[in-house]
Specification:
Blueprint lengths: L7 H7 L5 E5 L6 H16 L3 E6 L17 E2 L4 H10 L2 E5 L9 H9 L2 E6 L10 E4 L6 H11 L8 H14 L9 H12 L4 H9 L4 H13 L1 E4 L4 E6 L1 H6 L10 H5 L7 E7 L4 E7 L5 H8 L3 E2 L3 E6 L3 H15 L2
Parallel strand pairs: 1-2, 1-4, 2-3, 4-5, 5-6, 8-9
Antiparallel strand pairs: 7-8, 9-10, 10-12, 11-12
Helix pairs in contact: 2-6, 5-6, 6-7, 6-8
Length: about 325
């Protein structure tokens, strides 16, 4: 397994005696944010730390099964309790994000409290938001980095199936079931987790094959009625209106993964899923090969992420955002 000059000794030293530790991750937490948070929660709890996990907003229902998720606090739902956990913390562990803007109002609180912060993340262009930063853009996921922390800290002997299943969830969600952003270590880690007894079939079934009737009908609507293909730019777009949200009663997590269906079409190399929210328009962008949607997201849509998977937003009408997206395609797709 490859090794990078990670600040593992600094992290171990900071956590060498029991402390009040608050783990935070980004708004709209995905499998990697949730998996890394819960894996760290369970591991640090073994060493006598008092550990709390806070996410800015609610998580998709497909992750309800994950061990320990009911113990986590949602800032949007229990704001005062979340503030208390931040204020009480001796150490903040920031997982799967590298800018305080990604945790909204929580970021301002953490900045003002001036807490000792450990950041573990794999996104590009990290901000200097933590005293200890374990950052590696070559990593598939934050869960990969958390596993390597456990390995380097000699904590693997404390691994449990619950911790392993949390880590595996982050691996498979951020790699799309090992289809992108992989590296040799991803498969070694997956094999090691399988050896300790994780149920990989159960996890795949819960995360990827777990749709309500409403979600299946919404998918059909998106593909049949809202998908536009631009063959000259090898691009597909799905745009959902506020009326679509009302008609299908779309909730958090209902649109997860729809953007990926566009890339199943032969010849399509860029996919955009654009949704009209109450106050803004959000974009979820995916690409194949050497087209950087991260550059598109950061340059035009106040966003960012990964080379082949990024997101952004604009405070403009839906039709305007779609037009802007179409107009920039000639600059990025030959």
């Amino acid at each position: 397994m490859t090794h990078t000059n990670y600040p593992i000794a600094d992290i171990v030293n900071e956590l060498s005696v029991p402390k009040y530790v608050t783990i935070v991750s980004h708004r709209n937490p995905d499998g990697d944010a949730i998996g890394s948070s819960l894996a760290m929660y369970h591991m640090l709890s073994k060493f006598g730390h008092t550990v709390r996990v806070i996410w800015p907003s609610e998580y998709p229902a497909v992750f309800e099964w994950m061990p320990g998720i009911k113990d986590c606090t949602i800032y949007d739902v229990h704001t005062d309790l979340a503030k208390t956990y931040i204020e009480m913390a001796d150490v903040i562990v920031a997982l799967d994000f590298n800018s305080l803007e990604r945790i909204d109002k929580m970021g301002k609180i953490i900045h003002e409290e001036d807490k000792k912060t450990i950041m573990i993340d794999h996104h590009i262009d990290p901000e200097p938001m933590a005293e200890i930063m374990m950052s590696d853009t070559a990593a598939s996921s934050t869960c990969e980095l958390v596993y390597k922390l456990f390995q380097g800290a000699n904590w693997l002997k404390h691994m449990t199936v619950d911790i392993g299943e949390c880590l595996y969830t982050g691996l498979i969600t951020d790699t799309g079931s090992f289809r992108h952003a992989t590296n040799p270590d991803v498969y070694k880690i997956a094999g090691a987790l399988k050896e300790i007894g994780i149920d990989d079939y159960k996890i795949h079934d819960q995360v990827f094959d777990n749709m309500t009737e409403k979600q299946v009908r919404l998918l059909g609507h998106c593909l049949a009625n809202r998908m536009e293909i631009l063959p000259e730019f090898k691009t597909g777009i799905i745009a959902l209106t506020k009326n679509d949200y009302l008609k299908f009663n779309i909730q958090r997590g209902d649109t997860e993964g729809i953007v990926n269906y566009i890339l199943k079409i032969p010849g399509i190399r860029v996919a955009a899923f654009i949704t009209e929210q109450p106050k803004l328009v959000k974009l979820s962008l995916r690409s194949k090969g050497d087209i950087s949607v991260q550059q598109i997201a950061s340059e035009y849509f106040n966003g960012g992420g990964h080379f082949n998977a990024s997101g952004g937003h604009m405070y403009k009408p839906l039709n305007t955002v779609v037009s802007i997206f179409k107009n920039i395609l000639p600059n990025h797709i030959k």
